[in-house]
Amino acid sequence: MDILMSNWCKPVEEIPEKYIFSVEKRPGSHDFPVMNIPLIDLQNPNRPQIIQQIFDACQEFGIFQVINHGVPASLMEETMKAMKGFFATSPEHKSSFYSTDMTKKCRLYSSTLNYQSEDVHYWRDNLTHHCHPLQHHIHLWPQNPSNYREVVGEYSIETKKLMLRILEAISEGLGLKPKYFDGEIIKSQGLSVNHHIPCPDPSLTLGMPLHTDPNLITTLQQCSVLGLQVLRHHQWMDVEPNPAAFLVIPGFQLKVISNGRFSSPVHRVVTHSREARTTIGSFLIPSPEIVIEPAEEYAGDRPVYKGFTYEEFFSCFIRSNCEADAALAFFKNETNSKSTTLL
Ligand code: OGA
Ligand code: NI
């Protein structure tokens, strides 16, 4: 059987045993409550209100949606079409992108990068590539569909602009110095496309492990199929897709920079019984060498975390099974964190 699920003969009638999670880990067959996620209109002429709404959403939920975000609807549709088109290309074409080598700047894989060693596989294929600077990476991207590079190139530029706009509002909300989010802290941009084929029994499988986004900030474009869940007050909740909006997830580095004020929620993906699901994540990622620490302007002399390089954090993150709070325990500043309920 092909490792890539999108190369399997459809539809799948029986779940291969390797994809069935233990009773403790599987989502089960009950209904999940829907999370009421803040919806923020970026065209609101009242800018202080936008800044406050973003600040409140980062603090209270660690996830929000933006509309009137400046990325043209036609570009979002074309990009989604290009991604679905890529996953519908021939098995030979897709297999030519297959790799679990993390250093590869454009790779297609299935489940996780630990496919060979993991006990149970996640129900997903994933295409990941770097986007910035475009001219260093675009030649590695797919050329089938034929407009992939053109459309996705424009999309990556537009989503970067959007993430920078949101970071600017966050910076103002936290009272940071101008251009705090510039240069090395936003050095790389990645694109990560999840594709999940229909699964005959979603109660037994998972489309993506529970994790926190380790980077600076993420935008996510979802198709109309339900799948993303956020852990809130110890309860998994569904995030209803809004294909016209972008979901924004402040990454874990923003939690550190805000001295623990912002949340960076644990989330996962469940599967769908009838429809394939595709999502497009855009990530801004600090350079490995940059030191991330609570912003002095905000934390004053009470930083609850020690500074660390992004590289140091990332290696702890991988060792902590992609649970950033566990990774962060390595960098906790004992003297100042006692008064908080952060970890
Ligand atoms: C991610 C992620 C969720 C989704 O890529 O980090 O959480 O719905 N994706 O695909
Ligand atoms: Ni995520």
CATH level-four homologous superfamily name: B-lactam Antibiotic, Isopenicillin N Synthase, Chain
Number of domains: 1
Number of E-state strands: 14
Report the portion of residues in β strands: 15-25%
* CATH class type: Mainly Beta
Rg value: 20 Å
The structural class is alpha+beta
Strand order of the largest sheet: 1-2-10-7-12-5-4-3
Shape, principal axes of CA atoms: globular
Structure description:
The chain is of the alpha+beta class and 343 residues long. It has one domain: B-lactam Antibiotic, Isopenicillin N Synthase, Chain (Jelly Rolls), CATH 2.60.120.330. The protein contains 10 helices and 14 strands. The strands form 3 sheets. It has an 8-stranded mixed beta sheet with strand order 1-2-10-7-12-5-4-3. A hairpin with a 2-residue loop joins strand 8 and strand 9. Helix 1 (47-60) crosses helix 5 and helix 2 (73-87) packs across helix 5. The longest helix has 27 residues, at 148-174. Mean pLDDT is 93; it is low at 338-343. Bound molecules: N-oxalylglycine (OGA) and nickel (II) ion. Residues 192, 194, 208, 213, 220, 227-228, 267, 269, 279, 281 line the site of N-oxalylglycine.
